[in-house]
Amino acid sequence: MADIIAFLSNFYRLEAGDHLLLFWLKEALIALIIFSIFWGLSLLLRTLLTRWVPRFTAFTSTDLDDRILARVTPPACLLVVLAGLYYAVKSLPFPEKAHVLSAGALFIVNVIVVTNIAWRITNELLGWYGSRLAERHGGGVDRQIIPPLEKLITIFLAGIALMVVLRHFNYDILSVVTALGIGSLAIGMAAKETLANMISGFTLMVDRPFRIGDRIQLASGQWGDVADIGLRTTKIKTVDNTLLIIPNSELCNTTIINLAFPDVRAKGRINVGISYDNDVERAKSLLVETALSVPEVLREPAPEAFFVSFGDSALNVSLFFWVSEYGSVFATTDKINEQIIARFREEGITIPYPIRTVIMEKEQ
Q1: How far, in Å, CA of 157 to CA of 163, rounded?
Q2: Residue 224 vs residues 207, 285, 296: alpha-carbon distances, Å
Q3: Which domain holds residue 111?
Q4: Does the residue 196 lie in any domain?
């Protein structure tokens, strides 16, 4: 008991500076304890997200949830640490102004971390969606659609984060939104055509009327293979190796024939005229036999021949055949034409020249 009284008497003899030092040591110890508790909670959260939760996500049919979990675990744990730092700093006897500044700084950091978590989740979702698009429509589709979506979502998340921070510091968000709206309107009026092409390009990427590599025919009669689908223009490589660049807004508002859809098979047609003296049924049989003798012609659907019309000097017959790929129509047509001439000569079927009969009458 005497020792305790001696200790207390010595404690009260301490100078004011010593009391202040002990006070700060005690407050710092409390802040350190608070921070240590939240640090332990962050480690517990990391263990939970890396060891226990994956046991439940393993039962799902996709690894999307596993990838999202791996991406959000580090920033989620960081949020807990920042929360501990916030309460630790708040427990310290700082002046009011210092508390406001530290709280504001930590709030900004928290908003950045939360925005980063949202961006990571969105990035994984877009990657998963892009891989599914590539599986359905072939490679290259994800590289056309996903990057613009990522940019739009990034701008959106950054705008939301900025408005939340401004609202926290009691700034007038309405005036900022109004200014942005007026600026966007001015930009939209100045770049109306460019924006129309960009929106049309995004529509083409989502609607998918054609894909890169497809052969399309425009309403003007021009046709070629799609080389690239951009945000502003679409590039088409024609058969004479020239590049046709078309604004996307024009493609969205015109009729397009996609020769590669629903599949790459193509139908060829050969028109031929035979003499009125020839046997039509025999000519049709020869056309079908000739087409079947060419390896590039498909057996299913089988080639067909039809007597289509009476011409001025010939009976018009058409041969229809299918090839496995639209790019081989011309070469296959050339082979069939060569054999048709040879077979018709062997069978005595003539392809007449145009004939006109002029009757001259004498004047009375």
Answers
A1: 10
A2: 20, 34, 22
A3: 17-183
A4: no
* Amino acid occupying residue 76: A
Sheet of 304-310: strand order equals: 266-274, 315-323, 304-310
Tokens 């942005």, residue located? 180
Helix (H) or strand (E) holding 332: helix 329-347
- In this structure, the number of other CB atoms found within 10 A of the CB of residue 219 comes to 10
DSSP 352: P
Looking at the structure, do residues 231 and 176 belong to the same domain, yes or no? Answer: no
Beta-strand (E) ranges in 129-265?
Answer: 215-217, 223-229, 233-238, 243-247, 257-258
* Three-state secondary structure call for residue 225: strand
Q: What is the dihedral of CA 139, 145, 150, 155, to 10 degrees?
A: 160
Q: How far is CA 352 from CA 23, 117, 355, in A?
A: 117, 78, 8
Averaged pLDDT of the chain = 80
3-state secondary structure of 321: strand
Question: Is the sign of the CA dihedral 338, 344, 346, 352 positive or negative?
Answer: negative
Statement to judge: residues 63 and 141 lie in one domain: yes
User: What is the DSSP pairing of strand 266-274 with strand 304-310?
Assistant: unpaired
CA–CA separation, 116 and 70 (whole Å): 14
Note the pLDDT tens digit of each residue in 22-75. 766 777 788 888 888 989 988 898 888 888 888 777 777 777 778 888 888 888
Which among 183, 202, 225 is the end of a domain? 183
Residues 30 and 154 in one domain: yes
- 54 within domain boundaries: yes
Its pTM stands at 0.54
CATH of the domain at 330: 3.30.70.100
Distance CA(297)–CA(303), nearest Å, equals 8
Q: Is residue 225 part of a domain?
A: yes
311 shares a domain with 178: no
Task: Looking at the structure, tell me whether residues 303 and 285 fall in a common domain.
Answer: yes
C-beta separation of 213 from 224 below 8 A: no
